[in-house]
Predict the structure.
Amino acid sequence: MPISPSPSRFSWPALPPLPMPAFLAAMDAPQRNLTLAIGASLLIHALALAVRFTPPDFIDKARERALDVILVNSKSKSRPDKAQAKAQANLDGGGNVDEDRRAKTPLPPSPRTKEGDRLIEAKRRVAELEAQTKAQMLRLKSERSVSAEKSKIDPLPAPEPNLSGADLASSALAIARLEGQIARQMEEYNKRPRKKNIGARVEEYRFAQYVEDWRQKIERIGNLNYPAAAKGRLYGSLLLTVTIKANGDLKEVEIDRSSGQTLLDEAARRIVRMAAPYSVFPDSIRRDTDEIVITRTWTFTNADRLRAD
């Protein structure tokens, strides 16, 4: 009976453990594992930062082939022999200077300013103000010293004037004369009539109604007694002022602006006198008015009619 060979068994020899630093050996297992993990992480990050990437060559070549194109606001027919830059049109010379230059910025040139001018001006102004302040302080001090010296000196009493009996009598007479003049002026002022001047526009109804009645009477009398010499030949307008007393009597008639025709002016005066006397003032007007002054424009129309506006 054949005997089958038994399978051979092979085992690797055991490797000796790696030496461990003393500070790691002194740690317990969790703390040692954490320290090793942190060290490995720092080593990996240091290797990653040390790696440097460079762009491929075709990117540098593309940059070399890039065009620097500028924009110009003019063009010329001829092409420049030695062009300094690329543009959208041919331009052989231009600008506002004779030198061969190229603009560095599209912004207009700014004036050169000298630094420190404002500071120098401010310092000069401060110095002037300080000088003025010192001068004012000196002037005030001098005035105060002068006033103090004057206050120390007792002022001499003013001498009493020696007035005689004649001087006193003349002064009393002058005072009495002045008082009499003032009293007479007050009396004359109180005797003055209380007037109410009325133009073409009247606010209060009590005056408006009286003036309207007066106007209607004037136009009625004027049209009935229209000047025959002016009919069909003369016409114009004039400004007339009439003063009426409280009892209706006519006090005064005055032409403020003539019509330029003596015949029409005299006809207006005559019509005012013919229409007098006028209505007596009602009690509502008499209580504070002694006279009414009416100013109106009289118009002699080309239709031979009188109108008092």
Observations:
- The longest strand covers residues 236-245.
- The CA atoms of residues 243 and 289 lie 12 Å apart.
- The beta strands are 69-70, 86-87, 195-198, 236-245, 250-257, 291-300, 306-308.
